[in-house]
């Protein structure tokens, strides 16, 4: 069952053709990754899903409904939530206050929100230990955890992440990716991960697409692409 489907998506910045007619599916309950080098068009693709850039052509269907002309806040309200860049946590607020803000689109009560904060703390014990600390004083990895936790507070049906591994030490990346895997396995949350860290992303994802110069050039299961000589030569340094 496809939760999100993209057909013929084109995004231009003036004369720059950033995304040149791509098709892909996000299957409900799966982790899908979009990998590629700098400038391949990954962030632009994500922004098009979140409604932050306008498409020139194509369609984006979320749960069967065309959303590519929908306002960004309405897209979030429907459950398609992008994790903010790690450093974009609100640095002068505490960890707990950042998590509370993540729930701002929800209409359910304080008890449900408190329960969900506890849930985020159980997923990321380092955040629990630092709940009263200002977000600006967290390490890069902890800020990334907080950004994910804040997105989870919006009760997403689809979680989008733009290079959560960027600038982080390998052990922290492993820790964060394991947690994403756990959330996916335990809660069935559908995840779309955009990454330049091709190896880790392919290990994590059930389904994967490779983007080059705005076009999808390869697709398959994460395991298939890990074993593909073209992927190994271009991205894994084999
Ligand atoms: P990175 O990992 O470096 O962010 P990316 O795969 O996410 O790369 P995009 O950021 O989507 O790639 O960029 C795709 C292309 O669009 C690049 O050629 C980039 O220079 C161009 N581009 C991105 N944003 C803009 C913009 N605001 N104005 C003009 N061109 C842009």
Mind explaining what this structure looks like?
The chain has 238 residues and is of the alpha/beta class. It folds into 2 domains: 159 residues, Rossmann fold (3-Layer(aba) Sandwich), CATH 3.40.50; 68 residues, no CATH class. 39% of the residues lie in helices and 27% in strands. The protein has 10 helices and 10 strands. A 6-stranded mixed sheet has the order 6-7-8-3-9-10, sandwiched between helices. A 4-stranded antiparallel sheet has the order 2-1-4-5, covered by helices on one side. A hairpin with a 2-residue loop joins strand 1 and strand 2. Helix 3 packs parallel to helix 6. It is globular and about 45 Å long. The relative contact order is 0.19.
Helix content: 25-40%
Second CATH tier, the architecture of the largest domain: 3-Layer(aba) Sandwich
Q: Return residue spans where pLDDT drops below 50 for at least 5 consecutive residues.
A: none
Number of strands: 10
What would you call the structural class?
A: alpha/beta
Please state the overall shape, judged from the principal axes of the Cα atoms: globular
| Biggest sheet layout | 6 strands, mixed
What is this structure, in a nutshell?
This protein has 238 residues and is of the alpha/beta class. The protein contains ten helices and ten strands.
């Amino acid at each position: 069952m496809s939760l999100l489907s993209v057909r013929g998506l084109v995004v231009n910045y003036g004369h720059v053709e950033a995304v040149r007619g791509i098709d892909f599916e996000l299957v409900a309950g799966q982790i899908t990754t979009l990998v590629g080098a700098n400038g391949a068009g990954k962030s632009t693709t994500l922004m098009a899903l979140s409604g932050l850039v306008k498409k020139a052509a194509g369609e984006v269907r979320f749960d069967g409904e065309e959303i590519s002309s929908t306002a960004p806040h309405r897209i979030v309200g429907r459950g398609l939530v992008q994790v903010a860049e790690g450093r974009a946590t609100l640095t002068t607020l505490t960890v707990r206050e950042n998590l509370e803000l993540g729930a701002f689109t929800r209409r359910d009560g304080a008890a449900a929100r408190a329960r969900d904060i506890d849930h985020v703390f159980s997923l990321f014990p380092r955040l629990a230990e630092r709940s009263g600390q200002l977000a600006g004083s967290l390490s890069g990895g902890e800020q990334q955890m907080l950004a994910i936790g804040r997105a989870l507070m919006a009760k997403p049906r689809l979680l989008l992440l733009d290079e959560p591994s960027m600038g982080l030490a390998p052990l922290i990346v492993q820790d964060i990716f394991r947690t994403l895997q756990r959330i996916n396995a335990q809660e069935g949350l559908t995840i779309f991960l955009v990454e330049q860290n091709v190896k880790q992303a392919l290990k994590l994802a059930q389904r994967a697409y490779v983007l080059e110069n705005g076009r999808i050039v390869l697709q398959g299961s994460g395991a298939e692409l890990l074993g593909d000589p073209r992927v190994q030569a271009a991205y894994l340094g084999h």
